[in-house]
């Protein structure tokens, strides 16, 4: 069974120790996904598997056989920037850029979670319809992605703009 | 990481057959096991992927739930029936880890995650009876502000890291298990062990046994319940202390209560003594404090974690006070 990565089928590595992160970076020449802590603490390696945000450093590549992986390289269809990529530029949502691919993939997953009604730990009414799109909600939902060089406010601004725009559509 | 083989089980029977080989571990989301293997704290020779186990959340006619072991943490937290009937469980799951990890982690794996004691992880530099039985414990006299205040032993002072399990302990959940000798069901509060002389054994599971489901009984008072987690930062950190509570008050009197604590012991800590002390008492701050003190009477803090006793006391009083206030 193949792993589908950004629309192309790839054979799973023979060595089960290879993480999804090492597969895309070192074997498929897709270095957009970053290796930060390699232990699930920083979120720099976030990718989408079957549309859900996950940590590629903690995922064995073989676990993804039969599944569809999207990395940051797969978001810019036909060379046009994804709306979140453009928003990060518009709001200075990065400085060194190392956490950015993970932040953007995570935000794509987060917006899908909000659209299907997944609550967060700070959601006041678990039984209620419609979720808050406040800064605090975005901060809580993005807490698995760390930025160490001070772009956090710009990151939240960028995500907030896209979230509010999509909610209005 | 040592080399290992990987296979996917088609279902429970297949997993149990594959899991019969010594050195085999079951793999759910891998959010803890892969990390432990990379750090050298676990070295299985074979992984059997059990994510093909049930992902169903079945609503029982009596109002209870049967939750398949391969249900992802996010899926359980967002389920409508869980949010309405067991809000403490939704909140406990959502208080744990990060969104990415909750998307990966299975509930079966959540039950079996191992302590985050740093000495347990530090295979090259520290002694740990959980990792290497008989080796000694460097946490007891080490940096131990995150460690246990209840139920610890001279062999181990580690805490259980799960938030979800604290809610399950309060909710009278039971764990469905299958092995080569058949099926059995164990109350969640009896799944995890206190360390005693064998801290290497986290649970009462026999080698090769597999968790297939978690059953939640109908518990009407749980519709008014919550989970509060106190930690060093606002999000994405393990608990210093956490409290799962459900409270039913009638005419100002505590009719029924469920209470469990996290971050304080080697297992999710059901606060039986506090519950006993509260039933039939007025729903007052004095009664809540007396119940918390009854539960914490045997606490034996270490060098760095005496603050947890007071923190647990205050958190219990605050959570029960909130629930009592919300019901007025």
UniProtKB/TrEMBL annotation, chain A:
GO terms for molecular function: 2 iron, 2 sulfur cluster binding; metal ion binding; oxidoreductase activity, acting on the aldehyde or oxo group of donors. Keywords: 2Fe-2S, Iron, Iron-sulfur, Metal-binding, Oxidoreductase. Coiled coil: none annotated. Pfam families: Fer2, Fer2_2. Residues 1-75 form the 2Fe-2S ferredoxin-type domain. Gene3D superfamilies: 3.10.20.30, [2Fe-2S]-binding domain. It comes from the Bacteria. This is Xanthine dehydrogenase YagT iron-sulfur-binding subunit. It comes from Consotaella salsifontis. The lineage of its organism: Bacteria, Pseudomonadati, Pseudomonadota, Alphaproteobacteria, Hyphomicrobiales.
Automatic annotation (TrEMBL), chain B:
GO terms for molecular function: FAD binding; oxidoreductase activity. InterPro entries: CO_DH_flav_C, CO_DH_flav_C_dom_sf, Diverse_Substr_Oxidored, FAD-bd_PCMH, FAD-bd_PCMH-like_sf, FAD-bd_PCMH_sub1, FAD-bd_PCMH_sub2, Mopterin_DH_FAD-bd. PROSITE patterns: FAD_PCMH. Keywords: FAD, Flavoprotein. Residues 1-221 form the FAD-binding PCMH-type domain. This is Xanthine dehydrogenase YagS FAD-binding subunit. It comes from Consotaella salsifontis.
